Amino acid sequence: MANNFAVIGAGHGGKAMAAHLALMGFEVSLYNRTLSHIEVIKKRGGIELDGDENVPHGFGKLALVTDHMAEAIRGVEVIMVVLPSSAHAEVAATMAPHLADGQIVILHPGRTCGALEVSKALRDKGCTADVTVAEAETFIYASRSEGPAAARIFRVKEALPLAALPATRTRPVLDAIKDAYPQFFDGIDVLHTSLNNMGAIFHPALTLLNSGWIEATHGDYQFYIDGVTPSVARVLEVLDRERVTVASALGIRARTALEWLKLAYDASGADLYEAIHNQPGYYGIKAPPTLNHRYLFEDIPMSLVPIASLGNRYGVSVRGMESIIRIGSIIHRTDYWRRGRTVEKLGLAQWSVSELTRYVQDGQVN
Fold it and tell me: Is 104 helix (H, G, I), strand (E, B) or coil?
């Protein structure tokens, strides 16, 4: 059981997690690479937390607030990385010289192949410490920042898959965090948590297929209700079938989007269009106010690209995903294939399915 944590990242999620852990009685260090972003927290010595009635409210006193990574993680048992997935490799490189044997690094969340990317980044930087890297399937909180030293938690998910790399280390990770987060359960392995990433299916395509409406209204419409028409839903269904097929090629039975909506929200329907419109929680959620949004600049390269890249490597047609990646690249005037987590970048290009499976399950590399 861990008694102390470091939270890496002081955005909406990081502030909420740091304050919540502190109010639960744990010793917490908070790191952010930009000191000005955490100056008020440092001066006050903590973060004010409000929100859900099931979450403790009040002032979460932090043991340390710093922009020095070595200070933040020194002697800490569990390191919670609460950053956009596009920053995972960079933060791993920053942590590498300062990590120690026995420490646990958890990505909240990993998106797709986050733990694989971080583990490779640590090796590339010459990290020899015996560190366990794990990833959550999605973020445990619905939260936001409410000022420079305040946060609000709207909801805490009740059950959330987590997997370590390799999977033989998942149980010790769950044991280490169970007093703080009993909601986490064994996610089988990091390929399962990666390929059950629903944001890869819903976010980029739904944003791009409504790009004109977003730019014209600055997001002043209901993202999932107005934005998901029957035609848009058919595109989402194609992307979802491709994701499930990629998973199947790797020997994984991934949840379909329909199954996920039923499991997460008890929403069902004859097709994805009906199921989304039968989810009461989607009503009232506005669209992104701009196309310069994480649904594109994070979810395309860090969620959609790795799934499509795995599909290309293991013989699955992913033309739908490739189309969305190409449109996003055109709109943002960038190359998301080049920026994204491809099998080449992850060091997996030459691995067979059995080799990849052995690696994520027990850490064996031929």
Answer: strand
pLDDT at 258: 96
Phi/psi for 187 (5° steps) reads -90, 15
For CA atoms 118, 120, 126, 130, give the dihedral sign. positive
Q: What are phi and psi of 4, to 5 degrees?
A: -135, 150
The yes-or-no answer on residue 299 being catalytic is yes
State the chain's mean pLDDT as an integer. 95
Q: Catalytic residue among 192, 203, 277, 332, which?
A: 203
Distances (CA, A) of 69 to 4, 40, 105, 176, 177: 16, 19, 13, 22, 21
Question: How much of the chain, in percent, has pLDDT values that exceed 70?
Answer: 100
Q: Which of 299, 332, 335, 362 is catalytic?
A: 299
Q: List, for residues 109-127, the tens digit of each pLDDT value.
A: 999 999 999 999 999 999 9
Domains of the chain as residue ranges with CATH: 4-194 (3.40.50.720), 198-349 (1.10.1040.10)
Q: Could you give the residue ranges of the DSSP H alpha helices within the chain?
A: 12-23, 35-44, 69-73, 88-95, 114-124, 170-177, 190-195, 199-208, 211-217, 230-249, 257-265, 272-277, 294-297, 299, 305-313, 319-332, 336-339, 353-362
Q: Determine whether 203 is an active site residue.
A: yes
The 10s digit of each residue's pLDDT in 6-57 is: 999 999 999 999 999 999 999 999 999 999 999 999 999 999 999 878 888 9
Is 214:228 a contact under the CB 8 Å cutoff? no
Whether the Cβ atoms of residue 162 and residue 134 lie closer than 8 Å to each other: yes
pLDDT value at position 68?
97
